[in-house]
Amino acid sequence: MNAPTAVRPSVAAPSSREPIGHVVEVHGPVVDIACEMLPPLHRALEVAIDGGSAVLEVLHHLDPHQVRAIALHRTAGLRRGAPVFDSGEPLRVPVSVKCLGRLLDAFGAPLDGGPPLAPSEFRNLLAPPPLLSDTLPSSDILETGIKVIDLLCPFIRGGKTGLFGGAGVGKTILIMEFMQAVASLHSGVSVFAGVGERIREGHELWHEMRDNGALANAVLVFGQMDESPGVRFRVGLAALTYAEFLRDALGKEVLFLMDNVFRFVQAGSEVSGLLGRMPATVGYQPTLPSEVAELEDRIVSSRRGNITSVQAVYVPADDMTDPAVGAILAHLDTRVILSRAQAAKGIYPAVDPLASGSNLMDRHFLGDRH
């Protein structure tokens, strides 16, 4: 499941274009580039490495003739003076309805040994949220078939749910149950974002979903733990781009699952440190609230369909007042707290009924019978 290092299918070979500059310094995934004309922020650049190529994302203008970029591939073999080519576009992925049933990386390249996607179009990873006039408010609950969740902390159709818990309390099993429920109860599709996933976890999830038939109605997008922080920082947006495309193209119920949002925050903290920014509260990046909002504000329902999000959230040291947890909590409609004490008793799903809850737990919304 290691990410391929080939050129993205949307970009022509570097040899067919003139370089815009050359590499000045390389510090791990950080690459400083000298160029006459500065490329805009978030532009995707390319540099040749050992017969292949690496993609760089411009994140900082150092001076009028120098930019700092983060490499999204390994930089082993990259040398000073290497020519850098402009792709002419920001980071983007190929999208198609044939992505269902596939395992992809942050660039839309296959990780399952299958053929590359034949894209119907390309979509940018960084995109503005829909206009307020095009979005729909949450007005219904999304039944999962799991009684304790539907009763005590029901999912809001088109809303965001946080799944808080440590290792071994049943987060992955619950996520697979949600995928099955959306496919069977609501005839919908699922998009799973593995942010900083261990290779073992990715293999287990892929094989289990393939065996139980859930993979046919799902897209798995992985940015693994051994990859560049730039990949782990962008893989959530890549998966969300597929969710938005499926919502718009199919008009179906889309379940967007992300494991783990805290690793997305950690990757942003690594990128911030590599760019030389001064850390803020408790060592987190000063851009923490805006980075979380950049992801969360795009998870909305439009007139074409709904995106309902379930996000696994790791709580460092079980401290719910941690700045990263607080930034994520501010965007959530439902909180499902998985308790290790419940799991130790053999009670699954290990939901803590007192700590969990939903913003729409109101008799006027749910009805008297609920």
Quick rundown:
This protein has 370 residues and is an alpha/beta fold. The chain has nine helices and 20 strands.
Can you describe what's shown?
This protein has 370 residues and is α/β, with parallel strands linked by helices. It folds into 2 domains: 18-90, Beta Barrel (Thrombin, subunit H); 93-366, Rossmann fold (3-Layer(aba) Sandwich). It has 9 helices and 20 strands. The protein has helices at 147-152, 171-185, 199-212, 229-250, 261-274, 288-296, 323-329, 340-344, 363-366; strands at residues 21-27, 30-35, 43-49, 52-63, 66-71, 83-90, 92-95, 103-104, 121-124, 135-136, 141-142, 155-156, 160-164, 189-197, 218-224, 253-259, 301-302, 306-313, 334-337, 357-358. The strands form 5 sheets. The chain has an 8-stranded mixed beta sheet, sandwiched between helices. A 6-stranded antiparallel beta barrel has the order 1-2-5-4-3-6. Strands 7-9 form a two-stranded antiparallel sheet. The longest helix is centred in the middle third of the chain and has 22 residues, at 229-250. The termini are far apart. Residues 2-15 have low confidence and may be disordered.
Index terms:
370 residues, alpha/beta, Thrombin, subunit H, Rossmann fold, eight-stranded mixed beta sheet, disordered N terminus
Mean pLDDT: 87
Return Rg in Å. 21 Å
| Coarse morphology | globular
Count of spatially separate domains: 2
Task: Give the CATH class of the largest domain.
Answer: Alpha Beta
Strand order of the largest sheet: 8-15-14-16-18-13-19-20
Strand content: 25-35%
Q: What share of the residues lie within helices?
A: 25-40%
The SS-based structural class is alpha/beta
Helical stretch tally: 9
CATH H-level superfamily title of the largest domain: P-loop containing nucleotide triphosphate hydrolases
Number of strands: 20
CATH architecture of the largest domain: 3-Layer(aba) Sandwich
